[in-house]
Specification:
The protein is of the alpha/beta class. It is 34% helix and 15% strand. The chain contains eleven helices and twelve strands.
């Protein structure tokens, strides 16, 4: 089984580590190289194209099902989270799952004047209470691929008047994801969306936009950017563009091609492909007597097998050791042969 596109991917290893970093499609590599060459040659097109940056915004918006006006471009999930953390009033109660990724936790912790609470992921909805201001969690856990119960969490937050910040970094690109269901989402795009590092996205509901201050507003945060290049801006952009970070053009030129490839393939097709390979791997692990973390994600983590990662790497199979687990992740450039190869090494 596979929908691997040989024109876009030609890995020289058995690469099962998309949860760490996705592989760039050939068209994205070409776009980055083209811009870099233009810059080196002093051509007019070498400085980067703001039209392409806006096209990336619209492409991501389509993938996660929101209008482009709800999307802010950036380069780091932590910076997006810092903007949201800065908007919380002193003493606000922020609820997290235990063991979630630090980039969505630390910006709130370092404030020093917020009430930070943690609960097990499976109990997170029950841990929301009337004093909770914001629930922050990843749609899919980085360490082990567990998928959050979004339905229960949204219901609990609504019942208690809390907002939600959902990190879609390990979901967007393989799991159908509706960013419109949340007050805020953040997404690092260099994993499942196959973008160069330096590409990330913040989505903000229209209501929540009014609660954020564009602390890092540059000239592009203006309603009329090209007439606001000098001196203070006269009017902020009316939508989420006011929260944009300055674009890393090499990353965004590549991202335009990567997101176009994801859109052409279709999230439903990606989901079917990735989860079928993960299911084959889970079945093979069970035959070998190993018990992976339960679930149906494209990320498969096996407790107690982290020490196998160096052996697999020596065999040309790239995975990750995370939180004591051996973590493998399956994406568009993987086939059943890749699954069988890792199982063969693990059986030795």
């Amino acid at each position: 089984m596979g929908i691997i596109n040989g024109a876009e991917f030609a890995p020289t290893s058995t690469y099962l580590d998309t949860a760490k970093c996705g592989l760039l499609p050939a068209r994205a590599v070409e776009a980055v190289q083209r811009l870099a060459a233009g810059n080196a040659a002093g051509r007019g097109d070498g400085a980067g194209d703001f039209g392409i940056v806006d096209a990336v915004r619209e492409s991501f918006a389509r993938i996660v099902g929101v209008p482009g006006g709800r999307v802010a471009n950036g380069g780091s999930v932590a910076v997006h989270c810092g903007l949201i953390a800065a908007a919380q009033p002193p003493g606000a109660e922020i609820l997290f799952p235990e063991g979630d990724f630090s980039s969505i936790i630390n910006p709130f912790v370092v404030r020093g004047d917020l009430k930070i609470r943690f609960a097990p992921l499976e109990d997170l909805a029950e841990a929301v209470r009337p004093t909770t201001s914001l629930v922050v969690y990843s749609a899919v856990q980085s360490a082990d691929g567990r998928i959050a119960d979004d339905t229960a969490l949204r219901a609990a937050a609504a019942a208690h008047g809390a907002r939600i910040l959902n990190d879609a970094t390990q979901a967007a690109g393989w799991l159908p994801f509706d960013a419109g269901a949340y007050d805020y989402t953040v997404t690092g795009a260099f994993k499942w969306l196959l973008c160069p590092r330096g590409t990330s996205f913040l989505t903000v509901s229209e209501e929540a936009q009014e609660s954020l201050v564009p602390l890092h507003a540059g000239w592009m945060a203006s309603a009329d950017s090209w007439h606001s290049t000098y001196g203070p801006l006269s009017e902020l952009a009316a939508d989420a563009r006011r929260f944009d970070e300055p674009p890393a053009f090499l990353a965004y030129h590549g991202a335009a091609q990567s997101l176009a490839y994801i859109e052409e393939t279709g999230i439903e097709a990606v989901h079917a492909h990735d989860t079928a390979l993960a299911a084959r791997y889970r079945a093979g692990l069970a035959e070998l007597g190993h018990e992976p973390v339960p679930g149906g994600a494209a990320i498969v983590a096996v407790p107690g097998l982290a020490d196998k990662e160096p052996e697999l790497r020596r065999a040309g199979i790239f995975t990750s050791a995370r939180a004591g687990h051996l973590r493998a992740s399956f994406h568009l450039y993987n086939t059943e042969a890749d699954v069988d190869r890792i199982l063969d090494v693990l059986s030795g």
